[in-house]
Fold these 3 entries.
Entry 1:
Amino acid sequence: MPPAVHPNFQKLKELYAQTPVILAPMEDVTDVVFRRLCRELGGDIGMTEFVNVEGLLRGCKNARRKIRLADDDQLTAIQIYGSDPERLAEAARFAAEAEPFFLDINCGCWVPKIAGRGAGAGWLRNPDAMVSMAKMVVSNVSLPVTVKTRIGYGPESDMPIVDLARRLEDAGVAAITIHCRTAQMGHSGAADWSWAQKAREVVSIPVIVNGDVKSAADAKRAIDETGCAGVMVGRRAIEHPWIFREAYGLLRGGSSVAPPTAEERIALCKRHLRANVEERGEPYGVRCTRRHLSGYLSGLHGAAMLRQKLNLEDSLEGCLAILDAWLERSAAAA
Ligand SMILES: Cc1cc2nc3c(=O)[nH]c(=O)nc-3n(C[C@H](O)[C@H](O)[C@H](O)COP(=O)(O)O)c2cc1C
């Protein structure tokens, strides 16, 4: 009898047929706390930040923490990275025990200390090796395996991504996310979604378009222009996680969703602070929420002053008092 196909293949297929808006993996951002907040705002499919396979296999505490999934992380994938196919396959087997929704291989990180050593986007320098590596990982786990990559390493005039997408599909990869920049571009320049469209045209597995989706309108435009199965949102979610409900409102409901109210913005600040302190304690939990607060407070009256006060406050109680005082002042003014 042939081995049973893992049920998550079917689940992935069904979810990816519904034009998903996926939370991008982001180091030091898409942890258990932030994934939950995004889920509550509609971003139910997400990924852990990338996890180094050597750290994972050596038992490094930090790497093991990153693959820890909560009960409500049902639609969360674990992303791994490394430069050695066998170690990637071994780490994939290990990560699969955490029962993620699927496993993703990072073939897109441009950072020189990672790509320069052949991991992340370094794989794009040798598409043959990348395809064999993907094949090896796929054959080592029963879960779906996806790949997140870029359009090329740079500065190719003809990007390898189209041929690569076809070959990754042949290798058994279940879906591909394309960050539509080259590795050499890092995060600069504009993402060219037309490459996602070209890759999508040659495969039957879902292709997810990524890069510069900053609003619901962008999400719709990216889908309309590329015909891709879904979009992935990174940086905009850090400052505006409401993008998930706004994008779904437009993509599925066909209408614009009202932006968050001031009260919602303050409530999210408080919720995120509390959850991070519960997870990490003080003052680290407060400090690592700061990168989000600035965006959450965007557009509020006196936002600059509010940010300044919060940036100087390391205690949870102090931050909550600052936010409550703003609410009181705003109610009094109304
Ligand atoms: C702070 C930060 C951390 C990131 N970490 C990862 C990562 O761990 N794995 C990965 O595949 N991409 C990572 N990325 C890239 C994003 O997933 C995404 O591909 C990129 O930001 C482009 O999408 P955007 O324009 O929506 O931000 C990171 C990006 C940022 C800004």
Entry 2:
Amino acid sequence: MISIEEMRQSVKGEILIGVPMSEHTSFKIGGNADFVIKPIDKDDAIATARYFQKKNQPFIVLGKGSNVLVSDYGLRLPVVFFEEALSKYEINGRNVYAEAGVDLQRLSVATFKHNLSGMEMLAGIPGSLGGALLMNAGAYGQEIYDTLNWVEIVGGGEKRKLKKKEIKIKYRETEFKDEVLIAAEFSLNKLDDKSYEFQKKVREENLTKRRESQPLSMPNAGCIFKNVIIDDEIVSAGRLIDQCGLKGLKVGQAMVSEKHANFIVNLGKAKADDVVKLIRTIKAKVKAQHQVSLALEIKMMGFEDLNIQNLTG
Ligand SMILES: Cc1cc2nc3c(=O)[nH]c(=O)nc-3n(C[C@H](O)[C@H](O)[C@H](O)COP(=O)(O)OP(=O)(O)OC[C@H]3O[C@@H](n4cnc5c(N)ncnc54)[C@H](O)[C@@H]3O)c2cc1C
């Protein structure tokens, strides 16, 4: 049982009751979180993480909610938002320090303006740095871990710094589970004028490609499934879904995007339940036609008591 009175003694930030997650996810889907904590600064963010971890109280950290599906029944676990508390970044020469709540697009643009290469291709990813580090976000040949020096975390109630070689990183996945990511430092590469102009052109082309191929005008959560490796080759999950003829397939107000088959869009009033049904259908059709089990890229939240385990495999 969580006592708000007790929590207030360790946590300085605002505590909000009954917050609609549909307002905090890019999918615009999800019931109410029972309570949300917004730490006020870095010390408070660390104190909040330590408070829950020391009590062995599970909790959820949400960044920009751009890669999650929250259940229609909402979230019973406390939810912590770091956007305001962890919003600083500093660029010193080639070194970039950034806190987990920093907007990834902002960081990407700022570092590139400083003639630094390593994050410019991440410009179209609409998440926070914390979410990007948790998901090992990447695009067009760059991944967030490529240039990382260290990441500061709170795990088991203790603050620690992990060097890149101490972190297990996989495609769109890291080993982090209960750890809270607080900040990170990167060493980017200095671009000379000629390579800056070249990278600028490639980056603009990639952003145009993104606008043309992704349903950015409708609420979505990015790619639903991870790409798959077949015979040592990366095969696009979107292509497999498209080959099953599933573009445009609807359940309620959730639809497989006509533009990109690995995106599900919310046509207005989609329920998480509609999305789950669509995910089940996509997985079954792809399995039947291609003998491939698609694995989810998005994180499911608030489904612990519902029988959806077979969605994650
Ligand atoms: C239109 C669109 C395009 C996208 N394109 C790409 C793309 O090209 N490449 C790509 O990799 N992704 C892409 N994504 C997915 C998404 O933007 C990234 O995964 C992003 O990095 C998630 O960040 P977030 O802050 O929104 O994380 P959230 O969705 O809020 O959370 C994702 C996970 O990270 C955890 N988390 C968040 N912050 C922390 C923290 N500080 N400490 C511990 N755990 C934390 C959450 O608990 C959750 O498990 C796209 C999404 C959309 C909507």
Entry 3:
Amino acid sequence: MTEPQKSRGIIGFTTTVPVELIFAAGYEPCDLNNIFVGDPQPGRFVDRAERDGFPKSMCNWIKGIYGVVMEKQVEAVITVMEGDCSNTQALAEILRYRGVRTIPFSFPYDRDREVLSREIEKLKKELGAEEGALAEVETRIAAARSRLSEIDTMTWSERNVTGGENHLWLVGASDMLGDIKKYADGADEFISRARTRESMEGIPLGYIGVPPIIEGLYDFIEGVGGHVIYNETQRQFALPCEAADIVERYLLYTYPYGIFARLEDINKEIGLRGIKGIIHYVQAFCFRAIEDVILRETIDVPILTIEGDMPKTLDSRTKMRIEAFIEMLEGGPC
Ligand code: SF4
């Protein structure tokens, strides 16, 4: 089976969407978040947004996405209007105002199968994805996702994958870096390499919340005796659950359906993986910080909440708090 011959262009998106449809329509998918934080100078995208009038007191992920779209040549941006970020509506409006084609997509908050099915059909038509091409993409992407699932399992069962590697492989699954085969082959090669390593011994930790905007978090955690063996949202981006069809696959995906859908998954993985403590990352000015209240009252292992703002290295205060948290866990009952 082969990739589509010639790409029709790049389709950007603001959070995980049914990426199968983009590939099947012959476009190259691009998760704008990954372009933002993967850039050697991500702060310039935030600066661009602020120069264009975005307020200082606003989440820098949104500003970064805007800055990326202003620089990158995209055919269109799929904006997730429900099931992601409370700022996306205004982002979609400013992008349209700037002449960017935007395609709205929504995950129904109540996880209604019929509504999601309609949304997927609508997106399929809008992109021009054919049924035959979609079936072929689904086969190829399932094989790639099974390798990512193996990397994730190795992280907690064999303990030979670092938290940072787990994060990078799973977060990249949202667009497979534009090439399913290359991503799957890279994952295969990584699996073989990781299997030659010794097991890591740090305190097993979980990371929950949106992916971090800050750099060096995982390396620091490992340097002070922890090992992140579960990245909640990133794992969800890799669609870890087996499903009968595309609609079911995106119904089992927890991230868009609120804190209670997420909690079920988090608590299950804490038990399965033997996680001793949770690091909850919240982004400055993000509405999701409110969810910390519920998480603290419903998760049975200790939680450390940390906050990031700009795409830059971990600050000293957060480092001290992480170190103290891991020391506290080391001193606790095993
Ligand atoms: S961190 Fe929160 S406010 Fe920022 S883009 Fe993500 S969901 Fe939106």
